[in-house]
Amino acid sequence: MLRLAFPLVSHLPRTKPAAVRPRPPLARRYASSASTSASSFSPPPSPLLPPPLPPASAYVHLPFCRKRCHYCDFPIVALGSSSAPSPGGGEAAEDPRIVDYVQLLLREVSATRPVSDDGVPLETVFFGGGTPSLVPPRLVATILDALRARFGLSACPEVSIEMDPGTFDAARLRELVGVGVNRVSLGVQAFQEDLLRACGRAHGVKEVHEAVGIVTACEGLQNWSMDLISSLPNQTQEMWEESLRCTVDARPTHVSVYDLQIEQGTKFGQMYSPGVFPLPSDTESANFYKIASKRLSEAGYNHYEISSYCKPGYECKHNLTYWQNRPFYAFGLGSASYINGIRYSRPRRTKEYAEWVQKLEDGTWCHESRSSDMKDMALDVVMLSLRTAWGLDLQSFSKSFGKSLALSLCNTFKPFVESGLVIAMDMDRRALPHIDFELDLQNEDDFGSRVAFIRLSDPDGFLLSNELISLAFGIISP
Amino acid sequence: MAGAAVLRRSARRIYRHLAAAPAFSRSVLQQPKRLLSSQSSPEHGARGAVSGSELALYPPERVRNFSIIAHVDHGKSTLADRLLELTGTIQKGHGQPQYLDKLQVERERGITVKAQTATMFYRHVSASQDSDTPKYLLNLIDTPGHVDFSYEVSRSLAACQGALLVVDAAQGVQAQTIANFYLAFESNLSIIPVINKIDQPTADPDNVKDQLKRLFDIDPSEALLTSAKTGQGLEQVLPAVIERIPSPPGKCDAPVRMLLLDSYYDEYKGVICHVAIVDGALRKGDKIASAATGRAYEVLDVGIMHPELKPTGVLYTGQVGYVISGMRSTKEARIGDTLHQAKSTVEPLPGFKPAKHMVFSGLYPADGSDFEALSHAIEKLTCNDASVSITKETSNALGMGFRCGFLGLLHMDVFHQRLEQEYGAQVISTIPTVPYIFEYGDGSKVQVENPAALASNPGKRVAACWEPTVIATIIIPSEYVGPVIMLCSERRGEQLEYTFIDAQRALLKYQLPLKEIIVDFYNELKGITSGYATFDYEDSEYQQSDLVKMDILLNGQPVDAMATIVHNQKAQRVGKELVEKLKKFIERQMFEITIQAAIGSKVIARETLSAMRKNVLAKCYGGDITRKKKLLEKQKEGKKRMKRVGSVDIPQEAFHELLKVSNSK
């Protein structure tokens, strides 16, 4: 079935024009609100490049939070409310826990060997958390410096940071931008006081508006994302519409809409079961998803991934790395890297993580996790690419994993192409009528003469992505 | 015994299964070991070899063959243990309690499924002859108690001349006491009533004596009062056996003739038959033949169960023991068959009947790929239970499997349990059904053992249908009479008798269609009587009924494994309940699913399961896709375990759940 020796990284369009294009000019920021064009995925595909082996992305985990939100099961370190940063964040206010952690993280960075010596610089850096905005900009700068020294940074990398309302002021943001941050992901989650409180968020609606004001007024920062959560306890459709309206009014370049997941071991996990009051029913929460898709599309955002929307050209390049199955470094507590075909998740506890860094420095650590085989690779490609509006490129999939597997996948999706959950597209990304699609599947020789891509439809196919992808899993790994 | 309490125990059994999965493998692993060790284990009262010349000291007048019969939990097994200890056959405190119940399923449920025999030697101090204390050879024949095995019971009882009728001093006569009494009575056995558990604070032996008098015309003075637990009164039991039970009547000088009581398959020795020598003597090296099959065998080994296999080289008239004769399968050893001296013509012993299968169900591997494993397990189990009929069948929903015929409900249940416990098989069983007879306008008749095999639209008129019935005996405290009568009439029962056995307790007799009681009747009965009802039944004749085949359709596709035959008047109700249940257990899928119950082409119940709304994981956090991938892998595995009809995935639980509906209100 898997015929070709497969390069360890993706065959998917790795470099999208957007990823190497300079920052869109300011004038373009709101220019495309009318462009709810044919393809929701604005940049055209570039031809396949030779497999780029070294990672061009780095994820940096900054785990500190004031307190744990009720839905969160991340590796975080709760600092407590006393440690709200003093605006401006002078040395005196630096929490020793943060300083020590960053020290450890820097040790990890310098103990990590670059994959190649010929210096492929980092194109994206993502500071995720936790609440990275709690980390003093000076320390963020030291991390960026370390990354630059170790791996190199491209001329205009995308450097994102997650920030929570109430944890920064204009000066602090300016400082961050000054050290190289150029994209902010603002964790707003909701625009209703009650909902924020119910989630255990450390901020209120007032802080949300302040934060939006600071971000939009910040010079040198054009690219920012608003993060929202739908299906919160007691959330009504009116509230959700209101949040979406406020979001559109704030004019971020990017919106992430996460459907609440109830995770075991979280406070919500103890309090609620999915689909049961006060959580919205499946029907309601599916409806929330559809409303978001509708409202944001109307406002000129492309729904380019299951939970991501952007103004044309403003995809999160860092996240595209994940969805295109390209390699990436990762640093810090609990973070997951993908290097040389191997996925590795670091220890989730500070103590174990520190021990692990020590071993890494001593050269005594070698990971047990085996390198993924072809089957795993195919699963990853399908799982990740079907999350995107771009979808699965059948030609390159066939090339890597065999035409017959690609054909089986298409056959599995046949009824869903007919019912509209899956969209088959030709080379020019025009949707194919299901009759044409079926004709293409008649025999292996003809297969691919018309159909070039399959994707999940927006919103219905996206809403059932787990079902559809697990069907595909059943074909790849019976 | 059993029917009632057996079913009561099945709930307990389920918990046990859930809680103690290891018990399972233990039983599988240790079963052969126990068989091995049992052959010469010193703690089981090994008295050294018993020689043939020793057995010659026991002519029929020094032999007593008896059985113990009781309602479940009235103390039959404990009493048997005590008698074995009292005679030194087993040592007190050694070996496991319920010595004669060897199967795990018997021990867990407190029932007997296979007949067992044990030979005891007992020196009897007779009241009349104080000088002479002759030794007697006593054979305890432990019989299955449940109606499913009533044929086996009747054969075991045919080898006895008497029976101990054990009744709990507090609970009094229960449904199976009555059934067992009549079986023994019809076999012309001398009955010794034993009122047991008199040490209980609530014991009321006088009331029990009254019941015995009223129901069975047993003289109250005949009853022995015992407590097998404390040992009180036990000393009277064996003297009563010797004094009140006649010796076996056989002819010592006639050619050998014996009754086959039951058989076992032993991996090392082959088929071991338990036999009662009716006439003549049986020696190692003799040539014997089966009256049922005509096949001849050479006696390779013969001996007594004391309590395990003890070769003696000979068995004399009236004695009970085992024979190993090179039979290759227990199918050759038919219970109730007569074995006799080869090349002589003898009158076969009366009462031999081939197994009659009353309950049928399809057995399928829970995991479709495991057909071979299930096939192997069934083959091995039927080596030890020849009374199950097995034919291969194929279902569109469940794949390849077997249609199995059982003697009755308990038999089916025990078979399932043994498959799981002793062979580790995971099965899906279809709704149990009974052998219906359909007669068509053109005069043709079919016996229907699998509803799916009956044409939904036969193209010819159904002239008549018949279904098997049972006569059920129910004993309940009188305040529950109302609800029980209601239940029985819901189940299409016809009242035959309504009497009081004492001031508090009523006895009801009903004729009920077998189908109406095979699924959940007993649970329901227990439910409405706070657990007080006892219940037993015996087969009765076929009755004509207005029966129809009901199909279950998913998106228009019939699911053969869910087809069932129901009474026309109940079809609507049962159909509605089935589709509602299915709606609950079938998960939403990416398209709408219609669930229908139909008779022929007429839909009588319908539910719609709307399409799934969402199943999406919003976020791949920080590039960590492994968790999400695991989740999707799990989801994929879940789909793999489903059974599929057309495009609809059906979870296995749906099949299990359907078993619980088919009849209830």
Overview of this protein structure:
- The complex is a heterodimer of chains A (478) and B (665).
- Chain A has 2 domains: 57-84 and 94-324, TIM Barrel (Alpha-Beta Barrel); 374-476, Arc Repressor Mutant, subunit A (Orthogonal Bundle), CATH 1.10.10.
- Helix content of chain A is 38%, strand content 16%.
- Chain A has 17 helices and 16 strands.
- With 665 residues, chain B is of the alpha+beta class.
- In chain B, the strands form 7 sheets. In chain B, strands 11-10-16-7-8-15-12-13 form an 8-stranded antiparallel β-sheet, covered by helices on one side. Chain B has a 6-stranded mixed β-sheet with strand order 2-3-1-4-5-6, sandwiched between helices. In chain B, strands 21, 22, 23, 24, 25 and 26 form a 6-stranded antiparallel β-sheet that branches.
- In chain B, a hairpin with a 5-residue loop joins strand 10 (287-290) and strand 11 (296-298).
- Chain B is globular.
- The interface between A and B is large, with 52 and 28 residues.
Number of strands of chain B: 33
Task: Describe the oligomeric state of these chains in a short phrase.
Answer: heterodimer
Unreliable spans of chain A: 1-52, 88-92
Question: Gyration radius of chain B, to the nearest Å?
Answer: 27 Å
**Helix/sheet category of chain A:** alpha/beta
The number of distinct helices of chain A, counting runs of at least 4 residues, comes to 17
SS strand fraction of chain B: 25-35%
- CATH architectural label of the largest domain in chain B: 3-Layer(aba) Sandwich
Quote the average pLDDT of chain A.
86
Supply the CATH class of the largest domain in chain B.
Alpha Beta
Number of helices of chain B: 17
Structural class of chain B: alpha+beta
